[in-house]
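Milestone M4 deliverable, item 7.
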Amino acid sequence: MTEAAATVSAARRIPLARPGVGQDKARLAEMLRVDHAGEFAAVHIYRAQRAVLEGRKGKDAIAADLTEMEGHEAVHLARFETLLNENRVRPTAMIPLWKLAATALGAGTALISEKAAHACTEAVESVIEKHYADQIEEIRDRDPDLAAELTKFREEELAHHDHAIEHGSREAPAYRLLSSVIKVGCKAAIKISERI
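Output delivered:
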């Protein structure tokens, strides 16, 4: 491991393996539940943003981008739905609330401005890519196939993040405040979805 990789790894909070019978299965259930919830929310954020911006004059490019990104998230969501079923893991009980919150966040940021919609994407994807990176590190040896899938999903989330920056996310009104609030919300949703 390079010095830079060791520094990044040391800075991440990777849960230690839990002792006891069945703990790997319990941890996998937490991971799948939260990843499913995150992809579900992402689909609804992009869908709501697209609903606001699609058909507006001069918004064809962002509407096309949102459609493409929503498509990526829908593929991720479908995969996690399959993994939940295969592993007999229930989704989070918070799904109805996450749908409402994601729709409000997507519509709200799109109504503020195109750049605010991009700021939302940047904030959400920055939390999600770090979350996936932690999971990949945690399960790399235990479940290399799932780690490989998560790596692919993480790369797509990073592409969304970078696209948002390239399209002016940091020029959004009250960017720092908006970004901070969204990141705090995402981190809270991760913790809640793992447990409930």
